[in-house]
Amino acid sequence: MSITAEALRELHRIHTQLGDLRERLARFPKQLLAREGAVKRFEEILVKAQADSKATRVAADQKQLSLKSGELKIADLQVKLNGCKTNREYQALKDQIAADEMANSVLADEIIEGLDKIEEMQKLVVEAQQHVTQAKEELVKTRLVVESQQASVQADVVRLEAELAAAEAKLPDDFRVAYQRVANVKGSDAMATVDGETCSGCNQHITPQRINELRLLRVVVCTSCGRLLYLPEDTRVGGK
Ligand SMILES: [Zn+2]
C-alpha cells in the first residue's frame, strides 16, 4: 500500500481544524457556566450584605429604644428625687441617676457608631448590587457572542466533516482501514509530520530507513506514539 505525504498532510490539516473547532464548541457552554456562576456568587454576596445591613439597623433601632427608656427612667428618678424624705434616700437616687446617665452616654456613643456602620453597610449593598448588574450584563453579552459564534463554528464543522469524508474517500482501500483505526481514536493526533529526523508528535527519533520508506510512499507509523508519519511539504519525494 502506498500513500502520499500530500494526502496525509491534507487529512492532518482537516483533523487539526476539526479538533480546534470542536474544542471551541465545547468551550461555549463552559463560558456560559462561568458567567452564570459569577452572577450566582455576586447574588449571594448581595443577599449577605442586605442581611448584615438589616441586622445592623435592627441593632441600632433597639439601642435607640433603650436610650429612650433610659432617659424616661432618669426623668422618673428626677421626680422621685424632689420628693425625697431622707438624705440617704436622696443620695441613693443621685447615685442611681449618675449610673444611668453614664449607661445612656455609652449607649449614645454606640448609636453614633451604629449609624456609621449602617452607612458603610449600605455602601456595600450598593456595591454588591452593581456587581450583580455587571455580572448579568456580562452573561447577556456572552450569550449573544456564543449564540452567534456557535452557529458559524457549527457550520464550519459541517463543512470540514464533508471535506474530511471527501479526502478519506480518496485514500487507497488497504490504507483506509489502518488510517481509520488510528483516526477514530486519536483525531488530529493520528498523524504527525517528520521534523528533521524526529516525529513532531512525540519528538522521538525516526530512523533514516523509515524516512526512506516514507519517500517511497510507504505507510510508516511512529513506533513510539503510533502516529501515521508524513514528510513536510519542502521535502523532495523520491520518484516524483
Ligand atoms: Zn511519534
Structure description:
The protein has 240 residues and is mainly alpha-helical. It folds into 2 domains: 20-168, Helix Hairpins; 173-230, no CATH class. Helices cover 76% and strands 4% of the residues. The chain has helices spanning 5-82, 87-169, 173-186, 208-215, and strands spanning 191-195, 198-199, 228-230. It has a 3-stranded mixed sheet with strand order 2-1-3, with helices on one face. The model has no long low-confidence stretch (mean pLDDT 92). The structure holds zinc ion. Residues 192, 199, 201-202, 204, 222, 224-225, 227 line the site of zinc ion.
Question: Would you spell out the secondary-structure blueprint of this structure?
Answer:
Layout: H1 5-82, H2 87-169, H3 173-186, E1 191-195, E2 198-199, H4 208-215, E3 228-230
Parallel strand pairs: 1-3
Antiparallel strand pairs: 1-2
Helix pairs in contact: 1-2
The structure holds zinc ion.
Zinc ion (ZN) binds next to loops.
